[in-house]
Amino acid sequence: MSDVSELPSKEANVLKGHEGGVLAARFNSDGNYCLSCGKDRTIRLWNPHRGIHIKTYKSHGREVRDVHVTKDNSKLVSCGGDRQVFYWDVATGRVIRKFRGHGSEVNAVKFNEYASVVVSAGYDQSLRAWDCRSHSTEPIQIIDTFSDSVMSVCLTKTEIIAGSVDGTVRTFDIRIGREISDNLGQPVNCISMSNDDNCILAGCLDSTLRLLDRSTGELLQEYKGHICKSYKLDCCLTNTDAHVAGGSEDGYIYFWDLVDASVLSRFRAHSSVVTSVSYHPTDNCMVSASVDGTIKLVK
Amino acid sequence: MNTDEDDFVFYGTPIQSEEELISRKKKAVAEASGHLRTLPSWKQEVRDEEGRRRFHGAFTGGFSAGYYNTAGSKEGWTPQTFTSSRKNRAEFKQQSMLNFLDEDEKEELEGRYLGTASQFDTFGFTAAEIARKQAEKEQQQRPSAVPGPAPDEIVLPATESIGVKLLLKMGWRHGHSINDSHANSLYKARREARKAFLAFSSDDAKSQPEDSEPGEEDHKRILDHPSVDGFSSSQSTPVYILNPKEDTHGLGYDPYKHAPEFREKKRTRVSGKQGHGNKQALSIKDSLFGLKFTFGPSAGRAAPGFGIGALEEYDAEDEDVYASVYEIEDTYIQEDEEPLRSNTENKPKLIWKEHGVLSGFKVALNSDYQLERFDPPVIPKDFLPHHKFPSPLEFDNKPDAPPEVPPPEDDNLKILIEGVATLVARCGKLFEDLSREKNQSNPLFSFLTGGNGHDYYSRKLWEEQQKRNGQKKIALDGKFSSSVDKMTVESRGKILGEMPLERSSRDLSSSIASVNVNLPFNLSDTFTKPESSSEFPEVAKPFQDDPGKQARFEQFLKEKYQGGIRSTVSSGASNMSEAARARERLDFEAASEVIEKGKFIKENKLHSQQLMGFSAIGGTQLTFGGLQQVKDTQDEDLATKKIYPRREEFQWRPSAILCKRFDLIDPSMGKASLDNNLMLPLHFQSLLYIFRICALFSSMVKGLGLQPPPPPRMRSKMDSLIVTSDLKAMKMEEAFSADRNQPLALQFSPQEVSKDVVDRETEPEVQVENVERPVDLYKAIFSDDSDDEIEASNLNTKEDPEKKVEVVHSTLNRLMAGDFLESLGKELGLEVPPNPPYSANIAGSSRQKESAIPNPGNVNILSVEENSFSIPIAHSVSLKERAANDEKTEKKGESRKDESAKKGESPGPSEDKSDKVHSGKIAREDRKKAKLPPSLHRKRTSTSSEDERSRKRSRRHRHSSSDSYSDSSNDHRDRHHSRSKGRKKRSSREKTSSKKHHKHHKHGSSQ
Fold this sequence. Notes:
The complex is a heterodimer.
Chain A: E1 11-16, E2 22-27, E3 34-38, E4 42-47, E5 52-58, E6 64-69, E7 75-80, E8 84-89, E9 95-100, E10 106-111, E11 117-122, E12 127-131, E13 139-143, E14 150-155, E15 159-164, E16 168-173, E17 178-183, E18 188-193, E19 199-204, E20 208-213, E21 219-224, E22 235-237, E23 243-247, E24 252-257, E25 263-268, E26 274-279, E27 286-290, E28 294-298
Antiparallel strand pairs in A: 1-28, 2-3, 3-4, 4-5, 6-7, 7-8, 8-9, 10-11, 11-12, 12-13, 14-15, 15-16, 16-17, 18-19, 19-20, 20-21, 22-23, 23-24, 24-25, 26-27, 27-28
Chain B: H1 2-7, H2 18-33, H3 35-38, H4 66-69, H5 103-110, H6 125-141, H7 152-155, H8 162-169, H9 185-200, H10 216-224, H11 226-231, H12 239-242, H13 260-274, H14 276-289, H15 328-344, H16 346-357, H17 411-427, H18 429-438, H19 454-477, H20 489-496, H21 547-562, H22 578-602, H23 607-620, H24 633-643, E1 646-651, H25 656-661, H26 674-677, H27 680-703, H28 717-741, H29 750-762, H30 774-798, H31 801-817, H32 820-830, H33 836-840, H34 845-852, H35 859-868, H36 872-883, H37 886-905, H38 907-919, H39 921-930, H40 934-939, H41 944-967, H42 972-1005
Helix pairs in contact in B: 13-14, 14-16, 17-18, 17-19, 21-22, 22-24, 27-28, 28-29, 28-30, 28-42, 30-42, 31-32, 31-34, 32-41, 32-42, 35-38, 35-41, 35-42, 36-37, 37-38, 38-39, 41-42
């Protein structure tokens, strides 16, 4: 077990710039940069460690709900209230492609391992996979087995995992053509993978984070204490998989011990809802985004 | 001619010399062939054969242009807006008289114009005008005492309608709308004064009513008709008066289009001028919109972000969920909504303004005008929310269900009974009585009065009632909502025409309860779930942390299991919101389901306990009190954990491209699409048959002490699928042949049989046509099979050993000749007395072979053989390989040679036959009867009737026998060819006879 003192608790940098709530903040794959998106319809690229705003990506017609960057940092994908998925070139800031097809707002979006496919999760109860390689703007796959809004999506090399308000976390295994549905009984807000890919952390709307074993679907642990009742809040595991981090609607950030589910630390990071947390892939720091319009780097 | 030339005198320019012409021609040719070709087509010039540019006259464009005299493009000039004049002719101008009139004539005409006739001039505008003019004229004509024009009222013409007169009497004037407003200036002035007064004394507004100002009455009236006041002048006055254009912008220009905050500012400024009331109005409006809107500095604040798409409209979902938290959002929304609102809601706003303008009146903080709400009646504390029927439901009186009765044999009667039962269940006893009365004489309805089928009827009726009751219960539960009513086991069975097995009518709402189908309990069990949570108190407390909720949950459970009316109060505390209640309800459903599942697991262990529990519950209808408040948090935790997560697995088909993009192999690659998957089971079935048959066969072979045949050649999947049915048929033959050979095994080397088997085994490859109805075939085969084996063995025991030898020889020979089926026919003939020729032929097996070949039944085989003679060596080699029996192959070769020799000997019949084989079946049959070769006569000594019969048989089997033979010849095409001739006619018979076919085998084996 890593030490509690290693957990980030100090505010290292505040990134201001978003006019309006920030809905998501994500480290890139090496953790040097951070992307955020928010109500002001922009996506912003930051260097959180130096507190520098690098670039703004504007094109979305509504709020931007999620953003993801490829491993080589060359492409972005974002989605939002305008029902579109935008595929950006990071350097030029131009939209390479717009994927239209979702019937309503798009909640989450992710690249796959090879950045060849974008999978988006929409309020229209569907997952859609978009091809980045071809020029087609039609989805190459539509998964609509969900019975409510799909809130979050995660991709592994072979699977598509998505959490939905219908209470299910569904794993679509492409190798064997199987859909595994784990019903948690509570609306799933956010799912995030453990770094060893063996577990799924699912943030539910009953103010509980649930850790699921992926192979068996077993509920391993529940993390409680924070408030998550009406907003889409992110949760994540730390890079060592030893702790669970999550935001709360009262502006706090919580850290739990992965195994015994005790709250190890909590501190008030923001003045209002912490919408998003993202843990650095290697260092002991994380970014958090809030509706108060700020993004904070916590060390 | 030469002399003539000298006499001529030439005038004018001489014609160009030949050389010149030639050179030019050459040039033209060269150009045409050479550089012209290099020129782009649009640059090329058209030249005639003389090499000159063609001139076709200025009128048509001078020289011919290049490129086919077009405008320089391949298409040339084509009018882009060409419209056919065929259908779309130029507009025909309507002529009027004016077109033909001169100026002065027109002037003349101008004197006449149209006007409203006075009797239709209701409001008398025209008439009034005329009258006024008249009056003026008159006045000018005769000076009167009253100077100036006479007032309108006096001079009004008599055409004024009585209505107008009345209105005028009431104070209405022309040009005003007709309502009872007093929007007159007098009151207005007074009101303004009052407003100013009120502004000072707004705090003691309550004292206002006591104020005895002359305008008091007026205000009251306005209050009574607030809207009328608002619209007082707007009905007939145009908008521009209501909304006067006061700015200097162009018409329709909205300076605040992109800066709505300024509009608001301006409006406040304007309204500020008008008085305090306006502000009030605005605040009312804002409160209506639920916005925290302030006119202060924030109004001018720059909006975050930028414009949204013009066509995008914000709807309810766009309401900012974060609005309460984030301050900026207020203005944000303001900005988005304002343009819309200001455009579309002008009028309402005006009304609001007017509201506020009401001097001295504020919007009441607590108005006495309230939506009247009636509180729900207070439910007495001791009220139990479900109704306990003294006798649970109407048919509960009947203590037991009528016993299960098999339906009557008569299907019609059964249907009738079921129909009547359903109707009676639905319409009540009355219907039964009625129909009984009606159909007293009808014997069909005797079941109503206790006759035939009464038992079944009563059972059916009971079932129906059960079902209906179950439905009622569900309906009362209010569970119906949107979900499709679940198909119960019974209803499904009904649809499928199944007979309920045992007590299937019980499980109406739960599939779980179906586990305890064993014992017929008290009747109440049948429509309430027999288990109750009382048996599992430790599990049934998923809401332990909230006692109230837990209590409600128990209530819920109770209702669920015990039936009865579910009151709304019970499903949630009365103070709960509808949404919370619904959510809770869902929770309960889920929890109860899990509890049931938990039970289901424990079912076996607790079975005996349950039985006791059931009877108790069934009898007394337990109601749960606080007994179950035993707390066991750990168990409870376990219970909730048991609920979720639940794992389910489904088929999912990733698209091929997705797999590709994920760099994975498509799991469904090569598989049929989902639609085709539906077809698959059939194939699987047939495959299964093959396997089973194979297994059967191999076991048989082993049982006979034979070495198993070499594995069949590798076939493509497709082949095996197609061949399936025939394979089966053939396998059966094999089986029979094996049977038949059983006694022979003593004399013959096992290879012999196995070779036979191999031959058969390879056959299926050939028979591509007969794919239909594998299941029937399967049945036919296997139903026969078991019988056959037994019979065969029985018969075999009876046979005397001598005959066996004969038969062995004969069968062998026939097999050798490929005349397997023909031999079957013969064997059938042998069924009666044994054949002397057989015994005669025992020694000369080769001769018999010979004789077998020209057998009439075998004619088409012969023809096939002709074709397949090209590769006899290959055939024999393959045989050798498989059967490892050189001797046999030699024999075969011999037999073939014999055959050919025979053909040479008697070319007449055999050739004829082989020709005619192709010409059709009937002819062949005729010939068969007519021209039996002598060898056959020699061979056949059995009675003619037998012969006839056998021939018929053989005819039937010729098809397959030909196959069996020609298979070994490896020449597929020829086979198909020859076979396709008779196939059409035969195919139907083939199918039907397949069963018989095996029967014959059986008889044959009895030889």
